[in-house]
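Quick one: Delta(3)-Delta(2)-enoyl-CoA isomerase from Protea cynaroides, structure tokens please.
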Amino acid sequence: MCTLEKRGNIFFLTLTGDDEHRLSPKLIEQIRSALSQVRTESTRGTALVTTGEGKFFSNGFDLAWARASGESVFMERLEHMVSLFQPLIADLISLPMPTIAAVSGHAAAAGFMLALSHDYVMMRRDRGVIYMSELDIGLTFPDYFMVLMRSKIASPIARRNVVSKAARMKADEAVEMGMIDSAHDSAEETVKAAVHLAEQLIQRKWDGEVYADIRKASFPELSELFGLSYKAKAPSKL
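--- reply ---
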């Protein structure tokens, strides 16, 4: 489902296997457990890189699981996953270190939200799209999805294309629209670029709690929705 490995001062969270990495309650729980371990083991000058094996980064919530007991409980199970996923996003927004998503394949719906919750998003250009499928399958967006997109996608045109057009965007177009940071020629090159950036960032040896407070203050609407507090820290030397 997912693994966590630390190499030097970089944590690697990998969605494992060749499936779609659907965000089932079990996978959400595993990712949150991994992020809790990252938080516990964090020190000055650490970073997180998240990626996925196979064709997909993540294809969103596990809709097959939601329908497994019949259509009558579909919405109940979907709402359950929505409620479980919200604190995972809050975990990333409050994590005391830089975070980088190396999008190794398709990132759709909640899978795109998972990527967008990182500080930096890098994506392979040779395969994969980012895509919000809700309009196509007849679902509305959870409120925190909309707040996350307003916070992270600055261009109204880009947000319109994602939300109201259900556009499937490849990496180069997403870079041009300001939704991700960079595009790379393969999954391996994407991860390599993410590691290179992480190595640059950890050299700064930032205080993780200060970093997290600055991130939370940068996205006040998100922080308010998630109940994430932050405070200004002014060392005496300033």
